[in-house]
Amino acid sequence: MMQFTRTFMQRNKKQFVGQSFSRLKSSDFFSKSIVHLKQRKLLHISGPDASDFLQGLMTNDIRHLEDGSKSIYSLFLNIKGRILFDSIIYKCQEKDAFYIECDSTLFNNFIKHLKMYKLKRKVNILPMNNDMKVWCIYENKVDDQVSYNNIDNPKISKKNISACSIRNNTNGIIDNIAVYQDPRLFELGYRVLTKSVVDSDDINKYLDLNIKLHEIIDYISFRYKLGVPEGIRNFPIGVSFPLESNCDYLHGVSFQKGCYIGQELTARIYHTGVVRKRIMPLIFDNGCTEKFQSYENITNESGQVIGKIIDHEGNYGLGLMRISEASASSIINISNCTMKLMKPQWWPQDKPKIESSLKNKN
């Protein structure tokens, strides 16, 4: 089976690999790490009502995919405006069809959520289960002092690559490797969708790359360093709000589309222009071997609670911080560990006034 897959990829390489992959090969930025995201699964949704169906459930605008985008970041909320599932939605080559990536732990819950609102719509929901894999290719060395450029920065937009064409067989399963730029941040690199028989060597050979396979723990630590939440570890079901989780800054919320589940509270917070808490990256001084409970208190030098830790991996973590109080604190700690608070430089410059006082503490 593996030999067949390699033969297939070699035979179809010219068909699917063009300038976009040449750019990927020539870019030193994306030549460091590849990770199999075992905690992410794919769902295939198709049918004449698929676009309208998703539009009424998710925070982003599905029309971006119709206007040329290959992938979008989006959330699915409950009626109280809290996050149930975070996802990346990929456009398929076939008409009215999408792949949706979500956390594997919540995969069955996500399917139930979709089917609950399906009603009589002409929508097919097909779990890919173990038929496909999700990978990530990214640059794994980002210095603490480096500017985390926004994906809309015109200086880097020229490097963007288009998704590889997806060719489907009659069962709706892709039979080649597809590459999409991560729609959240340029620094997060590329998502790669493959059949389950494909391994990292196949991807390297197919894309003419030489990338070392890393463990998922390396990707999580890197993502925390950037300050980007993802999955059940960072979004406990029905707890987090989209704007406090920076999902607006990560291009995951549209404020121009029509109504969707949870839209009312999200829009109200947005139009007030005040978000007092946001998820921010934390750097532990001299490392920290302790493990903390989710939402354990983070305090300052006066013992005042200025935030709550969400999760950490190695020297890096994510905290839901009270921006004003955190910006005025000289010491930040949790239990016996001290830490530094980072201001992600990919945050837009025209932030609400409450955030403007936050200074980079690096």
TrEMBL record:
Residues annotated as domain CAF17 C-terminal: 276-349
Mitochondrion keyword on record: yes
Pfam family, one: GCV_T
Residue ranges crossing the lipid bilayer per the database entry: none
Domain GCVT N-terminal, residue spans: 43-117
Subcellular localization: Mitochondrion
Source taxon at top rank: Eukaryota
Alphabetical UniProt keywords: Mitochondrion, Transit peptide
Identification of the protein by name: Aminomethyltransferase folate-binding domain-containing protein
InterPro entries for this protein: CAF17_C, GCVT_N, TrmE/GcvT-like, YgfZ/GCV_T_CS, YgfZ/GcvT
Predominant localisation class: mitochondrion
